[in-house]
Amino acid sequence: MSNLQTLETTSFLTVDRKQISVEKFLETTPVSIQRLEEPRHKKLKKILGEKILPTHLEVALVQTHFTDEYYEDGNYYSVNGNTRKYIWNLYPETRPSQNLYVTVYHAFNKQEVNEIYRSIDSGESVETTRQMIGGLCRDNKFIPLSKYVGSGKFATALRHAYSCVIGTRSVFNYTQSSFTDIKNKKEFDFFENEIKYLDKLYFSFENNKDVKSKMNFSSVFSALLIILKKYGTDNAMVEVMINNLINNVVVKHEGIDKMNDGVSVILIDLYNKFAIQSDKWGDTSAGFGPIIIGNILYCMDSFINDCEVKVKNTKSNAIIMKDSKIVDYFVNYFKN
Questions:
Q1: pTM for the full model?
Q2: pLDDT top residue among 180 and 269
Q3: Distant-in-sequence contacts of 272-276, Cβ < 8 A, 24+ apart
């Protein structure tokens, strides 16, 4: 690292910009709290093999001005790029042919090293899925009115809704066709009109805690996206269905083993089953999501088509149909 010269006067707030060869970077040791590279390297190896981007040429080092059991005064330690280093060591053919652009920080104790690392290579510095959704809103020149949509909490609902439309559950576990794909963009663009419609709807009851307690969940939002995509935002029966849903309108409800309108079943039977008994109302994991969304969707669709729903009584819960059948209904909804 002889071509990295320390400034005559350095401080914790000193930042140097240099260039070094990939080989010189490979000689550096990671900072002591660096996470393990091996569990994450396969995904990045595919990316580096596909295309080297300018960002892959940027790395950060910290020069320590103290000595302890790990660090040695004057040495340079890699703050980020450690997974790239791991891959470039194992697979030399993936290395870039040009020099790396290096940002050099200075630390005078271990705490300062940790602070630098945490500010660059940490969960706090990584863009979250919700923040990505916010970026998609901005990219579409859409400023949400409601806190629910504005927070980006509907990312999971969006993926479930999209998987229902294309008829597969596998899309929920998002896979990019290319690492340069913007996560959730195709789903967002597909449901843009429905998202904007629901944003206004959710804004209308933002101060109503009773309504929010049942509506502010990915399961409900996802079902609404699907229904609106099928019937449109200007469908009269959709409007009635949503009005009854947010105003807690139970047209009739005669209990288990009786025929009831779909909204009443959602508000009473499904909510009692999933929210109160098993605390699953908001559970939209890859395994359980299609079950709760499929149940809500079935009831919404039945209401819009003026069909009553029969709720069956089991030993533990009131159900509409078996989980396997409701998942099949969810997956094949737009095929029928």
A1: 0.64
A2: 269
A3: 272/318, 273/317, 273/318, 273/319, 274/219, 275/214
d(CA 70, CA 13): 22
Tell me the two tokens of residue 233. 């935002």
User: 73-128: per-residue pLDDT in tens?
Assistant: 999 999 888 888 888 888 888 888 899 999 999 999 988 988 888 788 654 444 45
- 79-103 burial code (b ≥16 CB/10 A, e <16): bbbbbbbbbbeeeeebbeeeebebb
The answer to whether residues 142 and 148 touch, using CB atoms and an 8 Å cutoff, is no
Element (H, E) at 63: strand 58-64
What would the pLDDT profile of 30-58 be if each residue is shown by its tens digit?
888 765 544 455 555 565 666 778 888 89
DSSP class per residue in 262-324: HHHIIIIIIHIIIIIISS-TT---TTTHHHHHHHHHHHHHHHHTT--EEPEE-SS-EESS-HH
Amino acid at 148: Y
Residue 36 three-state SS: coil
Q: What tokens does 217 get?
A: 């969940």
Task: Give the tens place of pLDDT for each residue, 186-231.
Answer: 888 899 999 999 999 999 998 998 888 888 888 899 999 999 999 9
Task: Take residue 286 and report the two structure tokens written for it.
Answer: 């890859």
Stretch 252-279: mean pLDDT, rounded? 78
Q: DSSP 3-state assignment of 173?
A: coil
184 closest CA partner among 225, 224, 213: 225
The torsion of the CA quartet 140, 142, 146, 152, rounded to 10 degrees, works out to 20
- pLDDT given for residue 10 in this prediction: 76
| Structure token pair of residue 67 | 């000595």
Tokens linked to 297: 């969707």
Distance CA 29, CA 64 (A): 12
Which token pair is 221? 């939002």
